[in-house]
């Protein structure tokens, strides 16, 4: 297709402009996801390292481990999910514009996004690994919080065991509920792409 042809066809010019805009939107969302995860990995690792090497009182360390780090991990994952959703919406838009361009030109000229969706190609494993890694960082902090709580209490074996079981129950419940919520949202986003 020559530049002259595209100038003579305003519909094609508009469709190609929309196609390019949506591709850029998708690429920006992917780049943002990488940036979010790099920042989350680094900041959570720094906070956990600081907690491990800190001489702060348990009254500061325990809430940091039980609330702040797991909350920051979950917030990071929600921001990541928002960018994932953005890239999926842009991908659906690209696929729609591909169909419009192909119909307008009377052939199969653009098919990248449509082929990806129809083949079921999706990077599910890296995405699950990202979620598990971030959530496990929060779970590690919760374990540290339990350790600091036992250290601060240092009572009998039974009372220490009850503290450990309470913290473990809290961590398992919090992480399981959040993972359930996250996977449900993620599947909904993915399902919208495959049904488009």
Features:
196 residues; mainly alpha; 6 helices; 0% strand
Provide a brief overview of the structure.
It contains six helices and no strands. It has 196 residues and is mostly helical.
Please, could you describe this protein's structure?
There is one protein chain. The protein has six helices and no strands. The chain has 196 residues and is an all-alpha fold. It has one domain (3-195). The radius of gyration is 24 Å and the shape is elongated. The mean pLDDT is 86.
Topology:
Elements: H1 3-8, H2 10-52, H3 58-105, H4 112-119, H5 124-153, H6 157-195
Q: Tell me about the biggest sheet?
A: none
Question: Helix/strand/pairing class, anyone?
Answer: mainly alpha
Total helices: the number is 6
Give the count of structural domains: 1
Beta strands, count: 0
Please estimate the helix content.
over 70%
Give the end-to-end Cα distance, rounded to a whole number of Å. 28 Å
Backbone CA Rg: 24 Å
Low-confidence stretches: none
Tertiary shape: elongated
How much of the residues is beta strand, in percent?
under 5%
Average pLDDT figure: 86
One letter per element, helices H and strands E, the order comes to HHHHHH
């Amino acid at each position: 297709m020559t530049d002259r042809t595209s100038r003579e066809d305003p519909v094609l010019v508009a469709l190609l402009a929309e196609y390019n805009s949506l591709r850029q939107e998708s690429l920006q969302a992917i780049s943002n996801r990488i940036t979010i995860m790099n920042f989350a990995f680094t900041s959570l690792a720094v906070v956990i390292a600081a907690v491990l090497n800190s001489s702060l009182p348990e009254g500061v360390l325990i809430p940091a481990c039980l609330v702040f780090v797991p909350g920051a991990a979950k917030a990071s994952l929600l921001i990541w999910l928002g960018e994932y959703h953005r890239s999926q919406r842009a991908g659906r838009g690209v696929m729609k514009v591909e169909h419009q361009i192909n119909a307008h030109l009377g052939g199969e000229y653009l098919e990248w996004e449509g082929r990806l969706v129809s083949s079921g190609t999706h990077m599910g494993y890296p995405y699950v690994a990202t979620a598990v890694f971030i959530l496990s960082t929060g779970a590690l902090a919760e374990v540290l919080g339990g350790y600091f709580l036992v250290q601060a209490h240092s009572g009998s074996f039974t009372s220490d065991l009850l503290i450990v079981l309470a913290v473990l129950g809290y961590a398992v419940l919090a992480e399981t509920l959040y993972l359930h919520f996250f996977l449900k949202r993620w599947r909904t986003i993915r399902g919208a792409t495959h049904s488009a």
